[in-house]
């Protein structure tokens, strides 16, 4: 019979390390969290070979006193808590006191640290859980950890690690999440000598999102801020247009801690239901601040899993918050023109030798003669730019001033040889020319082709206006719109397409492919999918009637007799109350047959028998975990088969009525399956496509 024995300390340490240190990213997580707890404002992480050969973490935090260093590497030694009651109100990221002992048990660790009160720092070496040395050393304030040869004494663990590139990817992903959770801290991540991440620590979360995910993501964000009893939510969520095929872009933090929670993930995805296509997941970066007494962090040594005492309330309010924020925003996808910008090479003016004095005097006399009665010499008083007006008026004002003040002899793309020659000649008297141009005076010899100059000026004007318009468009994309002094103009500009204020200004152009309706509104071109629009109207109408118990039934005579299989009978009995709420009246007819005496009143025109069977087939594919709300949405979604189809001719009054119906919906932008109902294209994009703007 096997004997029971107490394991030695080294074996115990290695077993405990297996729970905390799974891979190099686990080491980085524990040490970076310690640096954050030490009030560091700048943290640098460097790894080599995926973190297996070297992990170096440097911070400018409070440091560790020399006498405390060996104690820090004991199991369950910590400065974060003192007694069991402290576990109820944990405010730090670490508290278990297992990280340093677990890391030291499976690696060669070097620690260099100094507190602000000490004159010198300390250097501590520990390998495989055994102390090697402790000595004084010159060091800056803060702490540096060097973790070398991870799992050197547990080759089995090392064998199960993935490639160096994959392990480095795990560390990179972790550093991005931590940077998002603490925008007030500057993070730098270096992999094999290359800087992969560097944040400024300016506290601006959107800057970090832009730095990590790029312009497209940052330009499609909605800010979130809400406070509830016991918790608050801050951060950004993405518009449905940037939804992804997996949950990798869902980031959420509890009291500054990066976690993974099925409860929060479900709340996020339920909040987006109806705004995205199926099997798509939202982009979110949310910080949830909770009362420490409402959450239990002490579930697993990696502290990635939490338990909530108010989980149901958190789920409901978070899902409702996201759904409300999405409904408040205009989510019409924009069709953009993606074209490579062709860099037009400006003609290079080769420097020439200065002309002889005689030639210089001749040019001066020529300029004086031209200046006397030249139509190109123009002086204009300084014009005050109007303080109010729309962006279009502002651009128009710029155009008029540019047309009047354009310098015809200036170097422009596509200049003609005659202009280049003139420019070379005028360059000899640069000081005089610059002075004249500043005063708005421009001179040309009589031999210059005036038609060519007009073409040149117009080309320059178009180029300048294009640059101005493009800059203006980028500013509006970044700020969400222009600022106007006139309140009426501003409010008109901010009217959504699907709003009662904007409705009288819609101009319906016509129908395309007997499927899409074309609408013009405020220099925007909209295409409305008639099938998706009608489907959405029916879906919302069905759901509203279900919630308010206002369904009407349409009696049919003779009744529809259905012959059901045993599985279909089980489904019918299980969901019969839901069918009745929708307006169906079904009764047992004998044997395997059931009589359908009435169908929902707003679904007339459909084959009631096939519709009911399709509904039951769809419900049969649902899992047991689906909530009653999902059952209703499944029924309502399939009921949308009554919607008008594509390639079906609609009259103008019918589409007018359909648009009016869309105005009454909370979310008119996406059909029940997540496809867009409306897409838009700006006048600027259309003109760019036709090369009116080049």
Automatic annotation (TrEMBL):
Bias (Polar residues) ranges: 387-398
InterPro entries: DNA_mismatch_repair_CS, DNA_mismatch_repair_MutL, DNA_mismatch_S5_2-like, HATPase_C_sf, MutL/Mlh/PMS, MutL/Mlh/Pms-like, MutL_C, MutL_C_dimsub
GO biological process, one term: mismatch repair
Region (Disordered) residue spans: 337-399, 426-445
Protein name (Swiss-Prot/TrEMBL): DNA mismatch repair protein MutL
Organismal lineage: Bacteria, Bacillati, Bacillota, Clostridia, Eubacteriales
Job of this protein: This protein is involved in the repair of mismatches in DNA. It is required for dam-dependent methyl-directed DNA mismatch repair. May act as a 'molecular matchmaker', a protein that promotes the formation of a stable complex between two or more DNA-binding proteins in an ATP-dependent manner without itself being part of a final effector complex.
Domain DNA mismatch repair protein S5, chain residue ranges per copy: 209-327
Keyword DNA damage (UniProt): yes
Gene that specifies this protein: mutL
One GO CC annotation: mismatch repair complex
Family: Belongs to the DNA mismatch repair MutL/HexB family.
Residue span(s) of domain MutL C-terminal dimerisation: 508-650
Keyword set, alphabetical order: DNA damage, DNA repair
Sample GO molecular function, one term: ATP binding
Biased composition (Basic and acidic residues): 337-347, 358-367, 374-386, 426-440
Keyword Cell inner membrane annotated: no
Residue ranges of coiled coil: none
